[in-house]
Amino acid sequence: MGRSAHVPNRADDDHQHMDRGLHSIAEDLSETWIEDWAGVGLRELEALLAKHAAFLDFAGDLELDV
User: The whole model's pTM is what?
Assistant: First the structure.
């Protein structure tokens, strides 16, 4: 059975910090928040797609002996 929710000592994995740092409410109130949010999302999506494309190039160069 899993551990109790009342156990005071939790594993570090339960309390990992976000990579993006602290969130400021002032960022949500700025006039460019939607553009900033979309820009970050698009950059992350582009990085993910580039990673997958590089893997497909790598996998395409492999010779499979079946």
Answer: 0.50
